[in-house]
Amino acid sequence: MNGHHESGLRYGDQHPTVYLDYAATTPADQSVVEIINQHLGSEGVFGNPSSRSHQFGRMADEAIEKARYHLAELIGADSTEIVWTSGATESINLAIKGVVWGRARQGNHIVTSSVEHKAVLDSCAYLASKGFEITYVAPDQEGLISPGKIGEALRDDTLLVSLMHVNNEVGTITNINTIGQITRDKGIPFHVDAAQSSARLPIDVGEIPVDFISLSGHKMYGPKGVGALYIRKRSGIRINPQMHGGGQEYGIRPGTLPTHQLVGMGEAARLAKQRLHQDSKAIADLDKYLLASLADIESTRLNGNQTHRVPGIFNISFAHVENESLMMSLKDVAISPGSACTSSRIEPSHVLLGLGVSEDTANCSVRFSIGRQTTRDEIDFAAMRLKESVELLRKLSPHWRAQSYDKQLQSDNKATNIAVIQENII
Length: 426
Prior knowledge:
This protein is an alpha/beta fold and 426 residues long. Helices cover 39% and strands 13% of the residues.
């Protein structure tokens, strides 16, 4: 695994800033950057791919189809089943709204979970405002979505089930194989948000009964601003376009295709397939190493199921250490309070609240996410800095001091059975 370049972010002469927020975005692989540059300038492949009447357009079109092939190969699909979009958010909107509006005469009901990405939750909220009924299936206390509960939520008028493969905040893995079989048996379309899983877990649509998959370029070491929607061609499910224009992408998603971004995502997909086993093993090793390095920090809580979790994404609560304060203290370690799409809002994570975590604990929680470029030295530095920051912030916390005093009193008075109640001290 590669370390950071010398040009990486630094604070004075200190250690380069350690990036542990790969679930928010991944740096584009160098080969991705190179192929993007080859499709921008006048000496490269810059033509409009819709202009097939001349060489410039045909070359761009060929480059895009090659990229489409690589992306399809990553998930075991046919090239004709891939529709380019501007990102996973658009893919999710297109899948949910497109399918629901396309099948509106057949029903009025959608099933999802309460811990989905905001692109899913907000799309469902919009459809609810238009009269559709939404069932939000709650996870268990470890963040797992029960296939049985999904099955129980299905109705005769259910139009779509939409769930994420890997949770972007706690890393839990949804059993899409079993859920897909349940929906397939009922004849209900199944959409999967695979933004977080496409470069971390093997996906084969020939084996998994899924009808739609949303994908993101910048979550697989590709460029931002590009994504795709897999649409199973044998499903026969009508999907209404959410934009109208030139008829590109089979009329489902019109607009001039950005060749440079698409070839970048295609190259990222090619590398993801090639490196999947190698990356997964390296990230899993670093995941265990980081967790072991943090194990001696007192009063911590790992949020989410640890058996059914993708290596490289985990969420920890540090008692009496607010996540905002912790991140401000860790200027040379990049971590996140949760989803990058909502972390600008000062509110507890809806995912953690959905797991039954209290607001206080949720506000003391941070996400760590490891990626292809993470090194062991970076883990050592991040763990050291984290321990220092947690210790410092706890010393400043009156609640932590009271808790520590409480423990000392309990220890001192064991022989006389003096009851010490923390609430009375605080």
